[in-house]
Amino acid sequence: MHTSYQRLVASDVDFLADFLIDESWPFHGPAALDRDTVRRRVSGGYYDGDESRTFWIIVGGERVGLIRLFDLADVPEGGTPLFDLRVGAAHRSRGLGGQALTWLTAYLFTEFPDLRRIEGTTRQDNRAMRRTFLSSGYAKEAHYRQAWPDEQEHVHDAVGYAILRHDWLSGATTPPDWNDEQPAT
């Protein structure tokens, strides 16, 4: 089935609220959003403004996921955009996350010709997203120990990935040099 991406518009606020509130998001926080918070965020530019752009993932005419790109205002000065990628529970494990990551990577590198890199972070236990990063050409760059608390007050490690423009263009992934430190004397 064909996948497309459609930019969020202000009139989507109720559908957005339903999507965010009615779904289970085990690897996102905060889990307890309410309609007023979503409405405030839409009117305040959280989902679409100078700093951010949000797109629906559309499959067969149905909105099945959401991509929120943010920290975009800093890109012209050499900043690095981040993203939030969500696929509804009924549509997970079908490759949509990988398609969306490939799409958002191409979108950002095309939309911002001077952009050098894109970053994303996930919880250590989000194995599906970690595989998606690697299969999409992103390299693991960071491992933050006990950095991501969940709703049950467990603390998880967070793992950071990034893709460089030259890797995206070449189709090769250059990992960081993990052995660049001098021994302590």
UniProtKB/TrEMBL annotation:
Keywords recorded for this protein, A-Z: Acyltransferase, Transferase
EC number: 2.3.-.-
Domain N-acetyltransferase: from-to ranges: 3-166
GO MF annotations in UniProt: acyltransferase activity
Origin superkingdom: Bacteria
Protein name: GNAT family N-acetyltransferase
Organism: Streptomyces fildesensis
